[in-house]
Write a structure and sequence with these properties.
about 425 residues, alpha/beta, Aspartate Aminotransferase, domain 1, Aspartate Aminotransferase, domain 2, 2 domains, eight-stranded mixed beta sheet, about 15% strand, globular, binds pyridoxal-5'-phosphate
Length: about 425
């Protein structure tokens, strides 16, 4: 095999014929495979089944709180300590509430828009339009959330070390309607990269140089401890850097145990300055008397002192799946030089770029064989990938055997779409 760009027309025609034959064969196999779901596999969920017994009838927290009763809107101290460990921030800066960090992001966005986060005159909806910076490719739920509030999204390219900070700094400094930026700093969804120290430093300073005086960094550290190797890969300490930069009131951090314990029964965390927490707590009091402290207590007891051990057990299940993805892509595509993909050392996703103009047709070809890929364009606001080249691969949920077949089919579809594109419309 050689680089596809160097192949003669005759070679391409023969290759297209062979690939089409393989593709038709796959279609007749009537597969039902799914690479769309960034969910833990059942074996990963089972790692936390010990939580069911950990309380053993003792519902009292370390400070004597009866977790079965009302009270404690910010969460149990031991649960907040778990959030502090994930977000590397002091425990007094953490709220533990609900089972989803996305819900907390929604609450913070709604509060920033309608009430302001600081108990002063600043709030986003005093002017229109309201815009935020969206590093792309990124997490589709951030985009849907913005869209639901009518917030405009201004794309910033992702690099191997984080958002393109030259562009982010320029845009934020020029336009006071830009009120924030979305960040997934460790094992970013979907590229899997970790923001460099320099990038985190610049992001910590960004609220100070932005034209808007109510600029907020949304620091969604969903994969803070989801490494494949230990000791964990470090991330520059945003909380400390923000304090040093005088921007601590304008950084809000998020995490959860969705991919540590149970994706539907975990804990959501947010961390911010005490000034911002006071405002948010006032808002949360409107719709909640207290969080589920029983779940908080069993999480705290179950994970206390063994978070890294627990994540190493996840890694033992997840890492081989990522290695399989990497190996299949390398074997099938490297020499042809028709795609680029990321090789994350943690997290939940691999991001793959095809030649421009092919992602949608690859998704469609895969669909014809019975392989569901995440819809092309998902990691872009409004599902619009301007180059139609990005595909997100979510390897965790599938059984290894299914993943292996799915990746081979995906490689086949990438090759077929690319050779057809190179041959042109008359092929
Ligand atoms: C970057 C990122 N943030 C947040 C979430 C959702 O987290 P939660 O379950 O805590 O709402 C996900 C889930 O895929 C994610 O990838």
């Amino acid at each position: 095999m050689t680089n596809m760009a160097d192949m003669s027309k005759d070679v391409l025609v023969a290759l297209e014929r062979d690939l089409t034959r393989d593709f038709e064969l796959q279609k007749s196999n009537r597969l039902a495979l799914d690479l769309t779901r960034g969910k833990p596999a059942p074996e990963q969920l089972a790692l936390s089944d010990g939580m069911a017994d950990v309380l053993a009838g003792d519902f009292f927290a370390a400070d004597g709180t009866d977790t079965r009763n009302y009270g404690g809107l910010r969460g149990l101290p031991e649960a907040r300590a778990l959030g502090a460990e994930l977000l590397e921030t002091p425990v007094e800066n953490v709220i533990c509430h609900g089972n989803s960090s996305l819900t907390l992001m929604y609450i913070v966005t709604a509060t920033a828009l309608n009430k302001g986060l600081w108990g002063d005159k600043r709030r986003w909806n005093l002017t229109s339009p309201v815009k935020v910076l969206t590093p792309v490719p990124g997490f589709d739920r951030h985009f849907t959330l913005c869209q639901s509030f009518g917030i405009e999204m201004v794309n910033v390219p992702m690099t191997d070390s984080g958002p393109d900070m030259r562009e982010a700094n320029r845009l934020a400094a020029e336009d006071d309607s830009i009120k924030g930026i979305w960040c997934v700093p460790k094992y970013a969804n979907p590229t899997g990269i970790i923001y460099s120290d320099e990038c985190v430093n610049e992001l910590a300073r960004l609220p100070a140089t932005a034209a808007a005086d109510d600029f907020v960094v949304f620091w969604d550290n969903a994969y803070a401890v989801h490494d494949f190797q230990f000791p964990r890969a470090p991330l520059a300490p945003m909380a400390t850097l923000a304090t040093d930069a005088g921007t601590a009131d304008q950084i809000v951090m998020f995490a959860s145990t969705s991919k540590i314990t149970y994706a539907g029964g975990g804990l959501g965390f947010l961390a911010a300055s005490t000034k911002v927490l006071d405002v948010l707590e006032k808002q949360m009091r409107v719709f909640s008397i207290c969080p589920d402290k029983v779940n908080q207590l069993r999480h705290a007891r179950f994970l206390k002192g063994r978070l890294e051990d627990h994540m190493a057990q996840h890694a033992a299940l997840v890492k081989p799946k990522f290695e399989l993805v990497e190996q299949t892509l390398r074997d099938g595509l490297e020499e042809l030089d028709i795609a680029r993909w990321t090789s994350p050392a943690g997290g939940y996703f691999v991001s793959l770029d095809t030649r421009p103009g092919l992602a949608k047709s690859i998704e469609q070809l895969a669909g014809e064989t019975g392989l569901a890929l995440t819809p092309a364009g998902t990691p872009f606001p409004s599902g619009r990938d301007p180059e139609d080249r990005n595909l997100r691969i979510a390897p965790t949920f599938a059984h290894t055997e299914d993943l292996s077949v799915a990746m081979s089919v995906m490689v086949l579809c990438i090759k077929l779409a690319t050779v057809r594109q190179q041959l042109g419309p008359s092929s």
